[in-house]
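Lab notes, practical 5.
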Amino acid sequence: MELFKDMTILSLEQATTLPYLTYRLAQDGMKVIRVEHPVYGDPNRMIGENYLKEERMHCYYLCINAGKKAITLNLAEEKGKQILRELILRGKVDIFATNQLPRNYGKLGVDYGTLKEIKPDIIWLGITGFGPESNEAAYEPILEARSGLMEVTGEPDEAPQSLGIPLADMGTSEHAYGLLMKALLKREKTGEGSGINIAMLESAASWLTVATTFTATFGERVTRSGNTHQFFAPVSVFKTKNGYVYIAVGNDRQWKAFASLPQFQLLDKPEYEKNEGRIHDVVNLNKSISEIFETHTSEELIETFNEIGLPISKINTIPEILDDPLIKRRLLKSKDSKSGLELTLAPAPFVTPFLEASHNTLSFPPRFGEHNREIYCDMLGYSQGDVTKFKEQGVI
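Output from the prediction step:
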């Protein structure tokens, strides 16, 4: 049963954090209408190579915008505000979301109070960098730096590192996804809408569970540990004869199994029997393991460790990950009827009923204002002449 097929989200979105959230909702089967300014649009449309040779359809934008519709609307114009009201009512919008700076909410007429007057049961979501009281610009690396995520990423004696994925952006999206599900449940039970504010800084800092408690409660310093783990050993990346593997010995029983292997019996020492002893001498321990690992291939070590149930993995490249049978079958597809280009997209976190019914296929990321006629003419009843006039007036 597709629970979300009759739901609509109107999203005044740009960049990553809100577009990724609505991308997730599109995977549930929601009707997602992304709203962009008719002149500026989403800056991410212009990022990356322009493989399609089309304005505002660069490859970076294509990664998280499949399954949506796109319209342009100038909310600074009074007519734009009127059309927004019509969209919310006649389009039966369930959720309105924005990642505009809070100072623009009232100016554009998209604040919760205004939209609640139009549709009392609307679910309103505002994503900000530092909370609804702040108009400070928020970019992923700034959030990583300010939240402490960079402080715990990288080698111990080197500079802090940015994460390999935009966790501040996408983590906020996932947290917002959960809040929207709660709001939908609340509305189902009570008939009431919700106003939700979520700050990216708070979302990012919430991942620092161990670091927070160890620092604030126990006075321990938590910082970068590179590929090792601050509390468990051996847990690290090791070079092999033909590549790299990562091993994770998470308890003393697993260590005993590790040290019982013929090639590692020299490490079966009393001082290493407990994790505390291994952590205390982790530099020498890892050096000894490295010397042994470099005499074996990754495949040999993986086979040996799997036989005794020890966690190990080859460090896969992105092409290797995409060829993994468990991932390959879950990759999403999106084909452009105009150019014939078929996108391969990252797998969803889980297969929704909508994705199952559509065979993991989403509509192609929408071109700039692609659905203006459909939304303004077919949904709202404006004529083509009206739409042309709106365009000339800078309304759409």
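Observations recorded by the TA: The chain has two domains: 8-206+326-392, 235-314. The chain is about 40% helix and 15% strand.
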